[in-house]
Amino acid sequence: MTTPEHLCVTTSYRPALLGLRRGIFFSSILFLTSLACWVMADILWRGGMTPLEWVLLFLFLPLFALVTFGFMQATVGFIMILKGDPVNVARFTPAEAVPDPASVTALVFPVCNEDVSRVYEGLRTMYLDLTRRGFIKQFDCFILSDSADANKWIEEEVSWVELCKQLKGFGKIFYRKRVLSLNKKSGNISDFCRRWGKRYRYMVILDADSLMDADTINRLVAMMDANPATGIIQTAPQLTGGTTFFARLIQFSSAVYGPAFVAGMNFWQMSEGNYWGHNAIIRLHPFIEHCALPAIPGAQKHARFLSHDYVEAALMRKAGYAVWLAAGLPGSFEGVPPTFIDNAKRDRRWCRGNLQHSWLLFSRGLHGINKLHLTLGIMSYLSCLLWFLFLILGTIHASQEVQREAFRRFDHDVGLTSFLDIGGIRLAFGLFVVTVIMLLAPKLYGLLLAVFRPSLRLGFGGVARIVAGIALEQCLSMLMAPVQMLFNTQAVIGTWLGQEVSWLGQKRTGPKGASWQEAILTHASHTVIGCAWAIIAYSIRSDFFWWLAPIWISLICSVPLSVVLGSEALGDWFRRLGIFLTPYESHPPAVISHLQKNIAECRKHFPPPQPLRANYGLMRIVLDPYLNAAHAGILKRSSRTQRISEPFENLQTRLLKNGPETLTAREKQALMNHQPSVVALHKRLWLTPDEELSPWWRMAMRHYNTLTAAPASALYR
Questions:
Q1: Average pLDDT score, the chain
Q2: Mean per-residue pLDDT for 9-29?
Q3: Per-residue DSSP letter, 293
Q4: Residue 146: how many CB atoms within 10 A of its CB?
Q5: Are strands 280-283 and 230-235 parallel, antiparallel or unpaired?
């Protein structure tokens, strides 16, 4: 039963302060947006308002409001960093606080077709760090797999067995593979909560590329103990580990500009923050009791929300628990997609999930601030469609104005501010300048914070390198923005048309160079749109052609831009120059250094021959008696009979005589999920004469016989 102390948010600050902060913050946004809309209306009003101009004004309102929102959030965050924000969940907990020994916590890693080496080396690094700091007794680790690829599944299982052997982690490190992967990640977490949730007071949710040091994890537990009315504490993870040009660019911009935005979010959110789905600690009792996701209204098969985190935060607040953003808390890290295209693929999945939240905007019981969170998530993608429409309609409007020869009389028309004697062109240029200033201000704040703090200044490589990095990042951001606009516009329209979006493992490591073929196929439509737009703009008016140059140049150059951004060689060149350095790269914490060292070792030890790599996990399960017995033991609980039916006999025969490449993914999945077949395959393989085995298995047996004891995670590339 929910206790009375849980029925209110943390009371370590005056509740009136929440209203005061939000009043200042949102009033400023309302004032600046209203002023800009007045100016925009004045520009369009000269000569009378046409229906098209009314539509342009309607589109301008939400677009400028989002610009103003970002500007104000960075501004108040910059001020809070300089003066110190007293309202922070970390400040409510004494620095010397020690977690309650009864606060047993689960570290949960939901995975789906991920890089096995990265997942397990990250787990190993955190486990050893907790052990060295003496915290491990209060923590258990769970790998929760939804991998559909049978080979990935087997690799995960093999790596779990080997990791537990090396760390003596049996009983502390657990692996679970669901038979039915219902409701994707949210269903995976729900299944964990039903099976094991009552054993733990808290759980720390981590992505496949997440990393947290022991002090941070222990600090999060202490913060939850000290604030019993808090349901979720979300950290602000730093981006690390990028090697491509794009990844290094993104992690640099996050390190420079991110602190001001995070402090700004905490300024107006306070105890009504949001949850981002990973690198966060959750109080399990209220999460289990109150945060079960509802079905999407009207959806088939009772589908659940893909972007579950925002909804779970809203349900936690509805239940009376606080949700905090731990602004300024160090020691939390995550990876970044290696290429522009991979980032767009991830955004497409997130777009579908965020647009689903529109069903909740008018639901009863949710707090207004949580509906704002949902709205901001929707608008982060919908704004790209609005921007695209604004540019298209602006082009049509320019064409109409030229036909009416309005440019020659633009400054002589009567407008709302004619008493100030400000011409329309000058007014439009002034609005443009103000917009640019508001967009650049957060970058100026980041520059000032980095330059005037000696430790940060050295971590970023010095003043000259910081300035060079910000200048180059700004240029590339301007080039990427129109392409990202089209990516998100396509995602929004595709979602509305009901296009399915696969929710598979993300690509978290980059190739030696981005593929020209993939770039051409992905950006062909963008290039065509850019060329057509440039021709249309030039036919309207030459100065309008140059006014739109940032748009059409970006779209025309999208293919080479994507290839350049995906280059590891270029990323390494900038690293050697000291540009796009981050403090966590210049002076990496112990957990990052250990992880990088372990991953490097994994990549060079015992690489299997190329023909074996696609089915290497399956090979080891069938060949190795220890791993075969372990896998069979895991499956035994779900096995109802020891009899092997004829279809499974045929699959076994095909696998041994023809090789695994002749079986489909579903057939391999079924075979590896059938315990009697797993046991029988091991016996048949070692008893079958070589001449009756496929060449693939003969090669596999020769390779297996050359292996010595080594971490299983070192065997997968």
A1: 86
A2: 78
A3: P
A4: 24
A5: antiparallel
**Structural domain includes residue 332:** yes
Compute the half-sphere exposure of residue 272: CA atoms within 13 Å on the CB side of its CA.
Answer: 22
Q: Pairing state of beta strands 322-326 and 230-235?
A: parallel
When pLDDT is cut at 50, 70 and 90, the band that residue 543 belongs to is: confident
Cβ(670)–Cβ(154) below 8 Å: no
Lookup: tokens for 27: 């009033």
**Cα separation of 258 and 243, whole Å?**
20
pLDDT tens for 596-612 read 888 877 766 656 777 88
Low-confidence winner among 196-205, 208-217, 394-403, 431-440 (lowest mean pLDDT): 394-403
Q: Tokens standing for 33?
A: 């947006």
Q: Is residue 135 part of a domain?
A: yes
Residues pairing with 333 in the sheet = 211, 238
The H or E element spanning position 393 is: helix 368-403
pTM of the model: 0.87
Q: Are 571 and 248 a contacting pair, CB within 8 Å?
A: yes
Let me know if residue 566 belongs to a domain.
no
Which tokens hold the place of 157?
């299982």
Whether the Cβ atoms of residue 86 and residue 270 lie closer than 8 Å to each other: no
Q: How far apart are CA 179 and CA 160, in angstroms?
A: 18
> For the chain, what is the domain count?
2
Single out the residue of 16, 9, 13 nearest to residue 88, CA to CA: 13
Query: Domain range holding 664?
Result: 610-715
| Terminal CA-CA length for the chain | 49
